[in-house]
Amino acid sequence: MANPDFEELVETFEFLDDWEDRYRHVIDMGKAMEPLEDALRVPATKVDGCASQVWLVPQIKDDVFTFRGASDAMIVQGLIAILLTLYNDQPVADIARIDAPAELARLGLNDHLSAQRSNGLRAMVERIRETAAAA
Hints:
The protein is 48% helix and 13% strand. The chain contains five helices and three strands. The model has no long low-confidence stretch (mean pLDDT 93).
């Protein structure tokens, strides 16, 4: 079971009847994110494997994992917001235990993302896991 914030997101997705409403919700989540400064949009924070441009900036403080991120595509920005909900404020040791594909499947994302978006989402999850593992 995921953290309470992600469980709340799952409940919200269950409440939204069709995928277009869910899609709009994902985009709204991305729009509500704190902007990432241009100074942090550098090659070291860029995620390879995404069709759009994606930057993830992780931070580990007191063994707690957080990250910020941004994308130049609205839907991808929303996907980053979903990953924030799944991973942020988790003990760094727990990051590897989070089964992101299973948790994201609970939102129905697997059936509604293009192959490129799915690959990009996997690349973001992999970057998060690698960062936590290196800590």
